[in-house]
Design goal:
Elements lengths: L6 E4 L6 H10 L2 E2 L3 E3 L17 E11 L12 E7 L6 E5 L2 E2 L6 E10 L4 E9 L5 E10 L6 E10 L4 E10 L21 E9 L2 E8 L5 E10 L4 E6 L3 E10 L5 E11 L6 H13 L3 H19 L2 E3 L2 H17 L25 H11 L3 H13 L1 H10 L30 H17 L2 H22 E4 L2 E4 L16 H21 L5 H8 L3 H12 L22 E2 L18 H5 L1 E2 L6 H7 L6 H12 L10 H10 L3 H12 L16 H15 L3 E3 L2 E4 L9 E8 L2 E8 L2 E8 L3 E5 L2 E5 L2 E5 L5 E2 L2
Parallel strand pairs: 22-23, 25-29
Antiparallel strand pairs: 1-8, 2-3, 3-4, 4-5, 6-7, 6-12, 8-9, 9-10, 10-11, 11-18, 12-17, 13-14, 14-15, 15-18, 16-17, 19-26, 20-21, 24-25, 26-27, 27-28, 28-31, 29-30, 31-32
Helix pairs in contact: 4-18, 5-6, 5-8, 5-18, 6-8, 6-9, 8-9, 8-10, 9-10, 10-12, 10-14, 14-16, 16-17, 16-18, 17-18
């Protein structure tokens, strides 16, 4: 896929602390297993802040979570994603001068992310204080082919001198996690989680093995430096920092090239991570760097061929969209030991925990483009199902499973339960994602092996959380997606997704009852037919709040009784509100952090009329702060459905550029992966009107007035369909697979090859 929009270039680099931290995030490297923030290899001068982080997805330690009052069941301990050994440092000496962006004169400086090749680059032309000039080109890659591998290619070209050059490449095991006591979204404990237990040099490579303080996990990082010119080499170990010093002669116009290989292996995935690190290093060294680059490009070629979105008519938005989709494949875990965190592997915001973001914002992208990745994410949820059962018991439920609101290894990490553990909708979200995967793939094997068990165990929770009263099923004392309104009765989102979940639990029971695993499954979890009948009865009797005067769905039973918070009177520097107002103050007002009822109308749209959805949209838009990065994309999708095309486009633009423009002013802590998934949905589910339902796949495309056209692809069952939307027509082409029935503008078509529909008159024309 040759596309000029798949390279993001920064030509002007500001060396202030704000921009340095922002670019550490924007130019990070990751592959779903390892993540490396993009600090300067040579570091920054004293006085500059840096989040110099390298991370492993799913690798964690425990830390104490102090509760003011130690009430029963409150979380006392949390997990934290760890900053592992630092392998980035490369110090360059030109005889007696040291290269630094902050000394001498920077003549040219460029950074880029190449989303086709899967690398980041940095080019610097620099003049030293004594007049020596060099070109420096650095290419970094976290390999999709070999997930344990991170490579750095470091080239130095003298432009006006010959002489001695010394390169010091270090591998430092003395690392700490980043802390920020002023932001509740970042850890503030400053604990040393990881302690080196060995640091050694073997066969020209350094190995550092470290152990966590409490979780009993170990990790080995291994580094080998290969300088392609004749040189003298010296190793030193200084307090678990292995330094390789290489000295060579540089010739005017010649190039000095260092290739630095770093591999990482953890004990969660490998029985002996020290031994495996040696195996992984040999594997990396057994092929050329050029071959590794080619494998990286091949992997991404397949990825883009599955999911590419093309926009004609807006170069900036097209590049932003590609950047967002690239970050999703960089961030998502590739095995059952990991998932995808709100910041991916780009930073330490939210401590690397996994939330509902995965199921409701990110899986909708992978489910219809790379469903095998969604399957991995569901496998992760199955791997922690037993802990979800334990979590349910802690919260007083005698049977069933309740997934933690935020976690890494399966235990709840939410210290503030009103806005965390009380969000029982997490069960419905996970069930929803499994159902969507089944609808898109018809993969019954996943339901038989894992998905069905998750759906049944989580459905049991609704029967205990809710109850019948006067033949109506209510769910009280829970929190919906909107964290500015907590511990409420009959949150609309929660009730409607519970209804959907319970209905599908009955359908999954029927799907599985004639399969070979049915008896084994029902015996394993002691599932009674009477429970299935109860699921059906609760779904039929589910209370869904509706206000006949306003003709909207109230967010919960008490929401409309509260005073409105006048957002126009709040100073702009007091947002996000969670940092400046006591939670109780927010809870007592009609104010929303993010879409709640609007989100429900998007994912389960057939329950309400268009009139109700439109009235609700207008009502909640006025009182939503969009303090959450999860917000804009959903409002944009629903605006498209409701015919508010200009508004939909405005929301999309804000969502697309959220990180590249740092619109929330916290991208330094990491990218916003859920927003990136939502940005894809804004095009496909918003402008494209795509819906995945039991009856099939549905489309209702619109074209933003500023665009010439756009196109996207959908994988459905055994087929892949390309959708192209232009001013007058929309074209559906079956790229491969069997013919499919599709719904377009509420009409049914049989797609065998190509279908062209006149958007203006909605008439079918066949090519």
């Amino acid at each position: 896929m040759q596309n000029k929009y798949t390279t993001y270039i920064l030509n002007e680099q500001k060396l202030d602390n704000y921009n340095l931290l922002l670019n550490e995030t924007l130019f990070h490297n990751a592959n779903g297993y390892i993540g490396v923030r993009s600090v300067f290899e040579e570091g920054y001068p004293d006085g500059f802040e840096s989040i110099r982080g390298q991370y492993i997805n799913g690798f964690y330690d425990f830390s104490q979570m102090k509760q003011a009052e130690n009430l029963y069941g409150l979380t006392q301990e949390k997990q934290t994603m760890l900053n592992i050994a630092d392998t980035q440092s490369i110090i360059l000496h030109l005889e007696d001068e040291k290269f630094s962006m902050f000394e001498g004169k920077v003549l040219d400086s460029i950074r880029w992310v190449d989303m086709e090749k899967g690398v980041t680059g940095r080019y610097v032309q620099w003049r030293s204080p004594k007049g020596k000039e060099i070109e420096l080109t650095i290419i970094r890659m976290t390999s999709f082919h070999q997930l344990t591998l991170f490579t750095t290619s470091y080239e130095v070209k003298p432009l006006n001198f010959s002489g001695e050059i010394t390169i010091e490449s270090s591998h430092d095991g003395n690392v700490l996690n980043y802390t920020d006591c002023n932001d509740p979204r970042v850890a503030d404990d400053g604990i040393r989680y990881l302690t080196p237990i060995s640091c050694e040099i073997k066969k020209g490579a350094s190995y550092i093995t470290s152990k966590t303080t409490k979780s009993n996990c170990t990790i080995t990082s291994c580094v080998k430096n290969i300088l392609l010119q004749d040189h003298e080499r010296q190793f030193t170990i200084d307090n678990n920092n292995a330094i390789c010093q290489m000295t060579t002669e540089a010739n005017l116009g010649g190039t000095i090239k260092l290739i630095k290989y770093a591999v990482f292996c953890d004990s969660i995935r490998y029985e002996d991570c020290r031994e495996q690190a040696g195996v992984e290093l040999e594997k990396a060294l057994s092929t050329s760097l050029e071959s590794l680059y080619k494998k990286q490009e091949d992997y991404l070629s397949v990825y883009w061929n599955n999911c590419d979105v093309k926009i004609e008519g807006d170069d900036e938005l097209s590049r932003a969209m590609h950047y967002n989709l690239y970050q999703l494949i960089q961030s998502v875990g590739k095995d059952e030991h990991s998932n995808i965190a709100p910041k991916g592997l780009s930073g330490e915001g939210y401590e690397g925990h996994y939330f509902w973001d995965t199921e409701m914002y990110i899986e909708p992208f992978f489910t219809v483009t790379n469903p095998s990745i969604t399957k991995n994410l569901i496998n992760y949820r199955f791997s922690i199902l037993e802990m979800a059962k334990e979590n349910a018991r802690i919260l007083g439920h005698s049977k069933g499973a309740l997934y933690p609101w935020r976690t890494i290894m399966g235990k709840e990490c939410s210290g503030y339960f009103p806005a965390g553990s009380a969000q029982y909708h997490i069960n419905g979200d996970i069930a929803y994602s499994i159902i969507a995967y089944y609808l898109a793939t018809k993969d019954l094997s996943l339901l038989k092996e894992k998905g069905g068990e998750i759906i049944f165990e989580t459905a049991r929770l609704w029967m205990d959380t809710g109850n019948f009263h006067n033949d109506i099923f209510y769910i009280n004392d829970i929190t919906g997606p909107d964290e500015y309104t907590c511990i409420v009765n009959n949150n609309y989102y929660t009730n409607v997704i519970a209804q959907y979940h319970l209905n599908w639990a009955v359908k999954v029971y029927d799907l599985l009852k004639n399969t070979e695993i049915f008896d084994e499954l029902v015996n394993k979890i002691d599932l009674k037919f009477e429970e299935i009948e109860d699921f059906h009865a609760a779904a039929d009797a589910m209370y869904l709040a509706y206000d006949s005067k306003l003709k909207i769905n109230p967010q919960d039973d008490s929401f409309l009784q509260k005073r409105r918070l006048d957002l126009q009177k709040i100073p702009k520097d007091k947002f996000p509100l969670l940092l400046y107002y006591h939670p109780l103050h927010l809870y007592r007002h009609q104010v929303c952090k993010q879409p709640d009822t609007i989100m429900a109308h998007f994912i389960i749209e057939d329950v309400q009329s268009l009139e109700t959805m439109r009235n609700s949209y207008d009502y909640y838009e006025e009182i939503t702060t969009h303090d959450s990065s999860l917000s804009d994309c959903i409002f944009g999708i629903m605006a498209a459905k409701l015919g508010m095309e200009e508004k939909s486009f405005d929301y999309f633009c804000h969502s697309a550029k959220l990180d590249l423009k740092d619109k929330h002013k916290n991208t330094k802590h990491g990218i916003h992966t859920a927003n990136m998934g939502g940005n894809y949905m804004a095009i496909v589910y918003g402008f494209g009107g795509f819906r995945l339902k039991e009856e099939g796949i549905f489309f209702a495309p619109i074209l933003p007035v500023k665009w010439v056209s756009y196109q996207f692809k959908i994988s459905y069952e055994d087929s892949r369909i390309i959708i192209i939307v232009k001013e007058d027509i929309c074209c559906f082409r079956l790229e491969h697979g069997s013919a499919k029935t599709i719904h377009v503008y509420d009409k049914i078509y049989h797609l065998k090859d190509m279908l062209i529909i006149n958007r203006r008159y909605n008439k079918e024309e066949r090519s």
